[in-house]
TrEMBL record:
This is Ferredoxin. Residues 3-99 form the Rieske domain. The lineage of its organism: Bacteria, Pseudomonadati, Pseudomonadota, Gammaproteobacteria, Pseudomonadales. It comes from Pseudomonas fluorescens. Belongs to the bacterial ring-hydroxylating dioxygenase ferredoxin component family. Pfam families: Rieske (PF00355).
Amino acid sequence: MNWIKITTVDVLQDDQVMAFKLPEAHLALYRCDGEFFATDNICTHQHALLSEGYLEDGCIECPLHQATFDVRTGAAQCAPATESLKTYTVKVEGDAVLVNLG
């Protein structure tokens, strides 16, 4: 597996999202109820950064057209988005947050 440390647990509080641009991917990292989740950071409906959207109850709202996605599964929750986001496995080791890009 291709695990990459992208941050530490203290960087994000619950219901926050942060962008990480890596050579392999442009990610959005979310913290919900103490757990971390990662998806592509680009909305599948139209090019917009999800990390600039509103995160609530495990869903991120696109700042451009208010499409929402479940950050746990990547599933599109409402129009205008119909295509799910790619998700990435996240794990915490000590205080490090690692994402599997493989």
